[in-house]
Automatic annotation (TrEMBL):
Chief subcellular location: membrane
Protein family: Belongs to the ATP-dependent AMP-binding enzyme family.
PROSITE patterns noted in UniProt: AMP_BINDING
InterPro entries given in the database record: AMP-bd_C, AMP-bd_C_sf, AMP-binding_CS, AMP-dep_synth/lig_dom, ANL_N_sf
Domain AMP-dependent synthetase/ligase: 97-419
GO BP annotations, alphabetical order: long-chain fatty acid import into cell
Chain ranges passing through the membrane: 36-55
Catalyzed reaction equations: tetracosanoate + ATP + CoA = tetracosanoyl-CoA + AMP + diphosphate; a long-chain fatty acid + ATP + CoA = a long-chain fatty acyl-CoA + AMP + diphosphate; a very long-chain fatty acid + ATP + CoA = a very long-chain fatty acyl-CoA + AMP + diphosphate
Name the record gives this protein: long-chain-fatty-acid--CoA ligase
Organism of provenance: Lates calcarifer
PANTHER family assigned to the protein according to its UniProt record, in alphabetical order: LONG-CHAIN FATTY ACID TRANSPORT PROTEIN, VERY LONG-CHAIN ACYL-COA SYNTHETASE
Domain AMP-binding enzyme C-terminal: 536-608
EC numbers for this chain: 6.2.1.3
UniProt key word Cell membrane: yes
Length: 656
């Protein structure tokens, strides 16, 4: 391997972690070049000698372990050879390779339209040329994309890749304060928005204009001063190639995309996904058995890791066809699959449950879907899904946008998110430590160190931050980045990434996801930061304080939002006013469904201890003396939560 000329350009420092073991191999290959290569090879050899002796332990998973291992080696070899190429090879280059190989193959199918690889390439060239001609943009400037799932999202991203611009993927549900916050944290110079988001853009326009941001709307005409139409310019632009020199400044450390995550506190944070991580992410579908002739159904939001990285980036590697859906729909799901001969679907836990709760149909098993890839499926839903929709292989994995550890359940063990692999764990150290849910922090022993959770017990997942498993952190947010780092875990001075996820490992070495900790909860596949919601509630005139938390509802993944609030002096609780406020400031998944009105916030104990008690008391009107309200979209108000409504929620008659 040639010596790097600049400081460590070979060093992958931000891997996408759907597959931990793959990654440590990738990384180890680059760490110290030949010495490390030899080390990996000898570890591999050693492991193949050890395996026969540990047959008993591994049985009956030995063969899947070995075959998984083979897959990993293959991915590793490919990655290594790409990293050695000059000029640098990025995800965009893989797309161009695919286009050259099969220009006429459909790449994106959307509603009734099909867009070939060649069309996608041309359209993205037109977009890039139109943008380059704009005086408000310079090649390499960061651009924020504010758009729902539609082909233009993908064309524009490719265009920006050709121009060497990092792209911030804004969640199209956010508005006002959150929108501005997200826009600002990646220092974007240009905002490109879908035409239907014009109102949301107008809300923040004065502030954007003040900052000198160029605002482009994907429409042919626009009369609003300060917003320019852009689709007409794209239509007229040339599809000529974009010179390589535009991207010559890019290295593997350059940011490629910013993806927003709601962390444990405060407003969303922009996780930096750099070029190296994106290149690693290419393998996410191919390593799970997706083939070039597969048709992939992408129905998750493109602004999230699942839709963008797993679905889109993963498909660029396999060269398969993406059936893109504007928004997930349980009732249209299988018809879409049948109509488009979909072979691979993608999920989050909610998707699978919604599919299982649709009315049974005779043709439930009539489809070509052979593989489902995703995360968060519950064991009971998993069983039901298989029995209802037939023999579909489920590949459940665990990864986070910014984290440095990942697992994949390649053995198909129902309910698990992955499997402990002694080799993976040795070179890529992660640990489950005992967690004190009352105090909301890891348990520390007399020496101030964390305590490993024994097998079978739930613990917090921590993974060591090393050269080969780095944590890049969040854009413009050192404070939040630091919060995800945990020190003095096993010995004084060591450094781990705090995943914020509680897990359990069983005696067969399967890993199970249990819960998220702290000030975040998950609802409908989205992380909700409680402090962000309470900040917004307390700017409503009638409320003084708000303590937001998530409560569990039988039969649902995650937790639904609830807030304990106190009123302003002399102000009455006004359900319709609060409803209006909540709806205009928060996306639907983050709106507190239940409100508990208290005379005073409890003052004893810590804020967090108080939360634990509130969470335990749930939203049961039979147990809680305080007035309870439920958000009612039909009445556009918070209405009293009666025992009857409560029962109907528990029985599943009232949909949440
Ligand atoms: C579009 O641009 C890319 C990258 O510069 C180039 O490889 C490709 O040939 C161009 N496509 C057309 C149709 O000119």
């Amino acid at each position: 391997m040639p010596r790097p000329t600049e400081q460590n350009p070979y060093l992958p420092h931000s891997p996408f972690c759907s597959r931990g073991s793959t990654l440590f191999l990738y990384r180890s290959f680059f760490k110290e070049e030949n010495r490390m290569e030899m080390y990996v090879i000898s570890v591999i050899l050693a492991s193949s000698l050890i395996i026969p002796f540990t047959l008993k332990t591994f049985f009956p998973y030995l063969w899947v372990d070995i075959s998984y291992f083979g897959d990993l080696l293959w991915i590793l070899v490919r990655f290594v050879s790409r990293r050695r190429r000059r000029p640098f090879f990025f995800v965009l280059d893989r797309f161009l390779e695919q286009t050259a190989a099969h220009p006429d193959k459909p790449f994106i199918v959307f509603e009734n339209e099909r867009y070939s690889y060649a069309y996608t390439d041309k359209r993205s060239n037109k977009t890039a040329n139109a943008l380059q001609a704009h005086p408000g943009y310079k090649a390499g400037d960061t651009v924020a994309l504010f758009m729902g799932n539609e082909p233009a999202f993908l064309f524009t991203w490719l265009a920006l890749a050709k121009l060497g611009s990092p792209v911030a993927l804004l969640n199209h549900n956010i508005r006002t304060k959150s929108l501005l916050h997200c826009f600002n944290c990646c220092k974007a110079k240009v905002l490109i928005a879908a035409s239907e988001l014009k109102d949301a853009v107008e809300d923040v326009l004065p502030s954007l204009t003040e900052q000198g941001v160029t605002v482009l709307l994907m429409t042919k005409h626009c009369n609003t001063p300060g917003i320019e139409s852009f689709s007409d310019k794209v239509d007229e632009a040339s599809d000529a190639p974009l010179p390589m020199s535009l991207r010559s400044h890019i290295t593997f450390k350059s940011p490629a995309v910013y993806i927003y995550t709601s962390g444990t506190t405060g407003l969303p944070k922009a996780a930096v996904v750099n070029q190296n991580r994106l290149l690693i992410a290419l393998a996410v579908l191919s390593s799970n058995g997706v083939m070039p002739n597969d048709v992939f159904y992408l129905n998750l939001p493109l602004y999230h890791t699942a839709g963008f990285i797993v679905g889109f980036i993963g498909s660029i590697e396999t060269g398969s066809t993406i059936v893109l859906k504007r928004k997930f729909s349980a009732s249209q799901f299988w018809d879409d699959c049948r109509k488009n001969s979909v072979t691979v679907i993608q999920y989050i836990g909610e998707v699978m449950r919604y599919l299982c709760s649709t009315p049974k149909r005779e043709n439930d098993k009539d489809h070509k879907v052979r593989l489902a890839i995703g995360n968060g499926i519950r064991a009971d839903v998993w069983r039901e899904f298989l029995s209802r929709f037939g023999n579909i292989q489920i590949r459940e994995f665990y990864a986070s946008t910014e984290g440095n550890v990942g697992f994949v359940n390649y053995a198909g063990k129902i309910g698990a998110i992955g499997r402990v692999n002694f080799l993976h764990r040795r070179l890529f150290p992660y640990i489950l430590v005992k967690y004190d849910t009352e105090r909301d922090e890891p348990v520390r022993d007399a020496n101030g160190l964390c305590v490993e959770a024994p097998k079978g017990e739930t613990g917090l997942l921590l993974s060591k931050i090393t050269d080969i498993a780095p944590f890049v952190g969040y854009a413009q947010n050192e404070e939040q980045t630091e919060k995800k780092r945990l020190r003095n875990v096993l010995k004084k001075g060591d450094l781990y990434f705090n995943s914020g996820d509680l897990m359990r490992i069983d005696k067969d070495n399967f890993i199970y996801f249990q819960d998220r900790v702290g000030d975040t909860f998950r609802w409908k596949g989205e992380n909700v930061a409680t402090t962000e919601v309470s900040d917004i509630l307390t700017i409503c005139d009638c409320l003084k304080e708000a303590n937001v938390y998530g409560v569990q509802v039988p039969g649902h993944e995650g937790r639904i939002g609830m807030a304990a609030v106190t009123g302003k002096e002399g102000a009455q609780f006004d359900g319709s006013k609060l409803y209006k406020h909540v709806v205009s400031y928060l996306p639907s998944y983050a709106r507190p469904r239940f409100i508990r009105v208290q005379n005073a916030m409890e003052v004893t104990g810590t804020f967090k201890q108080m939360k634990v008690k509130l969470v335990e008391e749930n939203f049961d009107p039979g147990r809680i003396q305080d007035p309870l309200y439920i958000l009612n979209d039909n009445e556009k108000s918070y209405v009293p939560l009666t025992a009857q409504v409560y029962c109907s929620i528990l029985s599943g008659n009232t949909k949440l």
